[in-house]
Amino acid sequence: MIAFKKIIIEDHCSSFGVEPICKVLPIASPTYYKRAAFTRHPERASNSTKSDAALRLEINRFYDENRQVYGAGNAWHTLRRQGHDITRCTVERLMRTPRLQGGL
Predict the structure, then answer these.
(1) Which of 27, 35, 75, 101 has the least CB density, counted as fewest CB within 10 Å?
(2) Is the pTM of this model over 0.85?
């Protein structure tokens, strides 16, 4: 949803400006500016944001390799076996963001 809003803002900001668009969409303009800055300069992101991005890739890979049926518990155990020092609540949070859910 945020990516969709970001696309809308970028497409129309030259005509209307960022703040008026953000007032119509339920998003704060500082949130948009912060996310846009990180998109332009990823090295400025915090260490936790960088590690979350790397772990999110690992979780998505694991989720797809296992036919999208494993939940946070299995993902957490697998990541720990692979040597990632991660807590279960972090895996749950990262799986909530793209709405990955175990099935069956």
Answers:
(1) 101
(2) no
